[in-house]
Amino acid sequence: GENVEQHPSTLSVQEGDSAVIKCTYSDSASNYFPWYKQELGKGPQLIIDIRSNVGEKKDQRIAVTLNKTAKHFSLHITETQPEDSAVYFCAGLNTGGFKTIFGAGTRLFVKA
Amino acid sequence: NAGVTQTPKFRILKIGQSMTLQCTQDMNHNYMYWYRQDPGMGLKLIYYSVGAGITDKGEVPNGYNVSRSTTEDFPLRLELAAPSQTSVYFCASSNPTDANYGYTFGSGTRLTVV
Predict the structure, then answer these.
(1) Distance between B102 CA and the closest CA of chain A, angstroms
(2) Which of A51, B19, B60, B73 has an alpha carbon 20 to 30 Å from B86's alpha carbon atom?
């Protein structure tokens, strides 16, 4: 069945460094790839997304890249800050269907 | 704008008890979803609905039931609670358009079955 694999499961960086989280999807029909940030005790919140007709998208310190051929997409956070510490989920969706498939999550620690 | 509101935030159930997790949204979203999140794991889809009166099973529907009588409300019913249902439950909604396929999540209900 459809699957989204996410790596690493845990990532620890120094404040100011960059962080990269990688995901691989199996369903070639997937064409929408959101990223969610979940802070402690809260629900996931959409932070950025990318469509399959776009290779890269940026929003301030965060960016997402997509390689359709390899079925890979990645989240890049630059100049990390302690408030970036959270669990990040990647996901894939075929917009002709209803079900978003989520990765297992990456717990990011940013050390001050 | 409240977004997606879930109640209660915490609940402890005894084995065999039943309860309803409430979810309501004020964004007029057609699509609503229930997910469970086990410790250190991702989100598993329990049930979803594409509009009032329409519901369908997700990956892990056993032991749960849902109804969607209005656009705003999507309650999740647990019958005969089991320890395996100890989890954090998230309700989400979306309104798929060409502009936005993202979900809005509630803050979750932490359920413990003892």
Answers:
(1) 7
(2) B73
Cβ–Cβ of B41/A49 closer than 8 Å? no
**Residues B18, B77: contact at Cβ < 8 Å?**
yes
Q: For residue range A19-60, what is the model confidence (pLDDT) as tens digits?
A: 999 999 999 999 999 999 999 989 999 999 999 988 999 999
CB-closest option in B41, B56, B107 to A104: B41
DSSP secondary structure letters along A11-80: EEEETTS-EEEEEEE--TT--EEEEEEE-TTS--EEEEEEETT-SEEEETTEEEEEETTTTEEEEEE-S-
B26–chain A nearest CA distance, Å = 17
Q: What are phi and psi of A83, to 5 degrees?
A: -70, -5
Q: Which two tokens stand for residue B33?
A: 């979803």
Give residue-wise pLDDT tens across range B22-66: 999 999 999 999 999 998 788 999 999 999 999 999 999 999 999
Judge: A41–B96 Cβ closer than 8 Å, yes or no: no
Rounded to whole angstroms, the Cα distance separating A84 from A53 reads: 28
Interface size, chain A vs chain B, as Cβ–Cβ contacts under 8 Å: 50
Q: A85 by DSSP, 3-state: which?
A: coil
